[in-house]
Specification:
The protein has two helices and 13 strands; from the N terminus they run H-H-E-E-E-E-E-E-E-E-E-E-E-E-E. With 225 residues, the chain is α+β, with helices and mostly antiparallel strands. Strand 11 and strand 12 form a beta hairpin. The protein is rod-shaped, with a radius of gyration of 47 Å.
C-alpha cells in the first residue's frame, strides 16, 4: 500500500508582493549608495565655504620729522614743484645770482690742539624771494687756507674726483656740506700730492670758500696749537 504524496502549498499573493517590495528597496539602497559615492555632497559644502582672506598690511609712508638744522648740500634739497601758470606751463627757475646767495666758510672748532685736524664746510643760503638753481657739486667747491699772505692749502691741488650737482634753493633755504672736508695740517701743492709735505706751524689761519662760482664774503679764522 503506497503512501499518499503531499502537495506543496504555493505562497499566497501577499508573500510575492512583500518579496518584490524587499527586492525594490535593496535596489534603491544600492543606487543611493552609488550616487552618494559619486556626488559626495559633503565636499560641495566644503568648497562652497569661503576661505578666510589674508590682508597684507600696507607700510605707511613715514614722514620725516621737521628739523631746524639746515639741509646738507650734497643731498639735493627737495624743492616744491613749480605751479603751472594760466597757460599750463611751469615757470622757468633761473640760476642763482651772486646777490641772491650768501656763502659762509665753516670750521667745526675755533681752536685745535696739537694733532687735531680741522673739518671744513660750506653753508649757503638763498636770501632772495624767488627759487633759483645752483651747482653745489664738488666740481664747484673750493677751500683755501691762508696764513697772512701765504697760501698753505687748496682743496683743488690734489683733488682726484669731482662731480656736478645742480639743486634748487627755495626762498630763504639754507644748505650745508654733507661731509666736512678734513685738512691734514700740511702745505699743499700739485707737485706733492703723493709725498710728505711740511706741517703747519701753530698760529692763526683763515679759511676762504666758494661754491657755484660764488665767493664767501668773509673768511673763517681758526687757531692751531
Amino acid at each position: 500500500m503506497s503512501t499518499p504524496t503531499r502537495r506543496s502549498r504555493r505562497p499566497s499573493p501577499a508573500v510575492y508582493r512583500r518579496r518584490r517590495l524587499v527586492a525594490v528597496l535593496i535596489v534603491l539602497v544600492v543606487i543611493a549608495a552609488v550616487v552618494l559615492v559619486i556626488w559626495q555632497p559633503w565636499r560641495g559644502s566644503e568648497a562652497a565655504a569661503p576661505s578666510p582672506s589674508v590682508t597684507t598690511p600696507v607700510a605707511a609712508a613715514s614722514t620725516p620729522p621737521a628739523s631746524a638744522a639746515p639741509a646738507e648740500a650734497s643731498a639735493a634739497p627737495v624743492a616744491p614743484n613749480p605751479t603751472p601758470d594760466a597757460s599750463g606751463t611751469a615757470p622757468t627757475v633761473a640760476a642763482c645770482s651772486t646777490a641772491a646767495i650768501s656763502v659762509q666758510a665753516v670750521t667745526d672748532q675755533d681752536v685745535y690742539s696739537a694733532g687735531e685736524l680741522p673739518k671744513l664746510s660750506i653753508t649757503l643760503s638763498n636770501t632772495s624771494g624767488a627759487a633759483c638753481l645752483i651747482n653745489v657739486g664738488t666740481a664747484t667747491q673750493s677751500f683755501v687756507i691762508t696764513s697772512g699772505t701765504d697760501t698753505w692749502w687748496r682743496s683743488t691741488d690734489c683733488q682726484s674726483e669731482s662731480s656736478d650737482q645742480v639743486v634748487q634753493l627755495a626762498p630763504g633755504q639754507t644748505v650745508s656740506s654733507v661731509t666736512p672736508l678734513q685738512w691734514d695740517r700740511t702745505r699743499s701743492s700739485v707737485d706733492t700730492c703723493g709725498s710728505s709735505r711740511p706741517q703747519a706751524s701753530p698760529g692763526y689761519y683763515h679759511l676762504s670758500v666758494s661754491i657755484g662760482g660764488i665767493q664767501a664774503a668773509d673768511t673763517k679764522v681758526f687757531e692751531l696749537r
